[in-house]
Design goal:
Elements lengths: L19 H5 L7 E4 L2 E4 L24 H6 L3 E3 L4 E3 L8 H4 L5 E3 L8 E3 L7 H5 L4 E3 L12 E3 L7 H5 L4 E4 L4 E4 L7 H6 L3 E2 L8 E2 L8 H5 L4 E4 L2 E4 L7 H5 L6 E4 L2 E4 L1 H4 L3 H5 L10 E4 L4 E4 L8 H4 L5 E3 L7 E3 L1 H4 L3 H5 L4 E3 L8 E3 L4 H4 L6
Antiparallel strand pairs: 1-2, 3-4, 5-6, 7-8, 9-10, 11-12, 13-14, 15-16, 17-18, 19-20, 21-22
């Protein structure tokens, strides 16, 4: 049945009157609706009275009374004694999530398909529910709503302890997540005790706390002291396959250790030329030609193939068998360029004006380049 109001007012506005200025502008009840408690009217709205208004379900009147609950066409849940509407009774996930009022919960007590605690679509409405959080990363679709349940949203101890990642706090009577068991990125990084490493995208306890002093930080092999804080090493791999493979292109293997790429670690010339980790000065340099912090050529050793994957480097295939800087990354003026007999200044090539001298090419060209 259509809801009605005992006095003047709009059913669509929970029996409130249309504001006078909007009424005088020609707005009618069917042109108005409530948005976060505020009256919004638009001549293009079609909000008929047949839509009624949201009221408390009759089922909630029969909690702990199974006979009357079931007689009213409601669903009685034991042992909690809740009497709820018959919703979300699907037995498989695909069917369950087709209803925006439902969510699939592998640890729900009364069937894995249950009513969502966060059925609202506005940020204000979402913030008003303590079981909910507003996601900036969600698409806002029915399958990926922005208003999402917080981790461990359960209200009762029996519901809470049924989920392996949740624990019931007897002091606060709240269901809380076990240490860093968040399944999503946002709540994980919002917890100062947790981290979500890009090289292993799962939530885990923060090992290298920013508050650690330099001595404490460097006593742990997974941590390093950068600038004024302790942080986890980004490339903490123990094999060249994992470090240099397709698993992680931001790392490279050198002398039995895995290092973070210079261009990733230092984004400015100042930080690159004066690195906070002293040892990084031996492996990183600022390349003015490329405009980035680059790995030093000499760190490639005698591996000519990997040497020439770096655009600033070339290998002396027929000379010293070493990896060296290209003339274009070594000299930036005609005077400095021509002072080196292995380089020449080419005014016809821009911006790489300093080039390898033709007389020296036989030293730096391999058979595959000929």
């Amino acid at each position: 049945a259509v809801g009605s109001c005992t006095a003047d007012g709009c059913v669509q506005l929970q029996c409130q009157d249309i504001p006078e200025e909007l009424f005088e502008a020609g707005m009618k009840c069917e042109n108005c609706k409530l948005v976060d408690g505020a009256i919004k009217c638009n001549p293009y709205f079609v909000n008929t009275a047949a839509q009624g208004m949201c009221q408390d379900s009759i089922c909630s009147s029969f909690c702990n009374d199974q006979p009357r609950c079931e007689a009213a066409g409601c669903l009685f849940q034991s042992p909690s004694g809740d009497c709820i509407k018959k919703l979300c009774l699907a037995t498989n996930k695909n069917e369950c999530v087709q209803n925006p009022a439902c969510i699939w919960d592998d640890y729900a007590l009364y069937g894995k398909c249950r009513v969502t605690y966060c059925p609202v679509q506005t940020k204000t409405g979402c913030a008003a529910i303590d079981r909910c959080r507003w996601s900036l990363y969600a698409s806002g679709t029915m399958q990926d709503p922005q208003c999402k349940e917080v981790a461990c949203p359960y209200k009762t101890k029996i519901e809470c302890t049924n989920h392996p990642d949740c624990i019931f706090n007897l002091t606060t009577s709240q269901c809380v997540i076990r240490t860093c068991k968040y399944g999503d990125y946002e709540p994980c990084i919002s917890d100062a005790t947790c981290e979500w490493p890009w090289w292993n995208p799962v939530c885990m306890p923060r090992l290298c706390l920013a508050s650690f002093d330099k001595t404490t930080c460097e006593s742990m092999p997974q941590c390093e002291y950068v600038g004024i804080r302790c942080q986890r090493k980004a490339c903490n791999y123990t094999s060249s396959e994992l470090c240099s493979g397709s698993v992680n292109e931001n790392c490279y293997w050198q002398d039995g250790k895995c290092y973070e790429s210079c261009k990733v670690r230092y984004e400015t010339e100042a930080t690159c030329t004066s690195p906070t980790v002293t040892a990084d000065a031996l492996r990183c340099r600022w390349d003015k030609t490329l405009g980035r912090c680059n790995r030093k050529c000499e760190t490639y050793g005698t591996n000519g193939t990997t040497c020439e994957t770096n655009p600033a480097c070339e290998f002396s295939w027929n000379g010293t068998n070493t990896c060296v800087l290209r003339c274009s990354s070594l000299y930036y003026t005609a005077a400095s360029c021509t002072a080196d007999t292995k380089c020449m200044w080419d005014s016809w090539v821009q911006p790489y004006a300093c080039q390898r001298a033709c007389s020296a090419n036989k030293i730096y060209l391999s058979l595959i380049h000929i």
